[in-house]
Amino acid sequence: MQKIHVEGDPKLKNTGAKQYSMFIGRWQPWHAGHRWLIDQRLNEGKNVLICIRDIAPDEKNPFSAQEVEANIKKELWQLLSDQTVKVIVIPDIESVNFGRGVGYDIIEHVPPQDIHDISATKIREQMKQEGKL
Questions:
Q1: What domains lie within the chain, and their CATH numbers?
Q2: What is the pLDDT at residue 1?
Q3: What is the pLDDT of residue 6?
Q4: Smallest Cα–Cα separation from 115: which of 11, 8, 34, 30?
Q5: Span 113-130, mean pLDDT?
Q6: Which of 18, 49, 88, 95 has its Cβ near the most Cβ atoms within 10 Å?
Q7: Environment class of 11 (CB within 10 Å of its CB; exposed 0-12, middle 13-18, buried 19+)
Q8: What are the distances in angstroms from CA 132 to CA 69, 74, 119, 122?
């Protein structure tokens, strides 16, 4: 599988309305690596849309989409209040697809090693040990 960066056709970009950089994830739980990821766009003066996949809770996903949404909103309340960030729940997805000339960019953000090494699995294990799960 090839990782790609696709630039959208600048003629199709909406220059009149407020636009958002979309991130789709489980966010189980929200952590510093997630914050680093959205900060890549926020630091460029972009707005961010965080999409939470609505998946059934299980061992790897102990929180419902609504619990994840509440947690993220608690962490990012200031960015939400000025509408720099929006958070929504979306149906579970199996792929992200696009066609040519889509009018928006598709960008991969490669984190530095310290951010890459953050593990939501380890965070969940620690939360279990502390009785928070």
A1: 10-129 (3.40.50.620)
A2: 44
A3: 64
A4: 34
A5: 93
A6: 49
A7: exposed
A8: 17, 17, 17, 13
Provide the whole-model pTM. 0.85
Instruction: Work out the percent of the chain whose per-residue pLDDT is above 70.
Output: 86
Question: What is the distance in angstroms between the CA of the first residue and the CA of the last residue of the chain?
Answer: 35
Mark residue 101 as left, alpha or beta (left: phi above 0; alpha: psi -120 to 50; beta: remaining).
left
DSSP-derived secondary structure for the chain: -----B---GGGS-SSS--EEEEEE--SS--HHHHHHHHHHHTTT-EEEEEEEE----SS--S-HHHHHHHHHHHTHHHHHTTSEEEEEEE--S-----TT-SS-B------HHHHT--HHHHHHHHHHTT--
Compute CA distances 70 → 52, 88, 133, whole Å. Answer: 11, 10, 16
